[in-house]
Amino acid sequence: MKTTIDLPEVLVKQAKQKALHQGRAFKDLIADYIRQGLNEQPSHAAVSRSSGALEIDPDGLPLFRGQASQGFRQPALADTLALEHSTLEQEDLQRVGLAH
């Protein structure tokens, strides 16, 4: 059966290289990985974990949740972007040896 799945390009390249290295068809490799995944218990990353304001989402990424009663306020987008710009600029200066 044919199906279409959007996957990260890097992941597809790695899988194609592995299939080539093993002398197997790409579709057979992917089918085996799906079979393995369906037979396994959910990984620790697939289960949401929580400890107060910090949670780990199903993809294993940190998720911060604040509550108004804890004095949490979401920063403004402009502030977040300014902080990101400043951090990236500082990293660039460090790379070229100009950081203080």
Sheet with most strands: 3 strands, antiparallel
**Strand content range:** 5-15%
Uncertain segments: 43-50
Radius of gyration, in angstroms, nearest whole number: 21 Å
End-to-end separation in angstroms reads: 60 Å
Whole-number count of domains: 2
Strand order of the largest sheet: 1-2-3
Shape descriptor reads: flat
Mean pLDDT, to the nearest integer, reads: 78
* DSSP strand tally: 3
Alpha plus pi helix count: 3
Order of helices and strands: HHEEEH
Q: Determine the fraction of residues in helical runs and give it as a percent range.
A: 40-55%
- Computed structural class: mainly alpha
Describe the 3D structure:
The protein is built from three helices and three strands, in the order H-H-E-E-E-H. A three-stranded antiparallel β-sheet has the order 1-2-3, with no helix packed on it. Helix 1 packs across helix 2 (26-39). The protein has two domains: 1-40; 42-100, no CATH class. The chain is mainly alpha-helical and 100 residues long.
Give descriptors for this structure:
100 residues; mainly alpha; 3 helices; 3-stranded antiparallel beta sheet
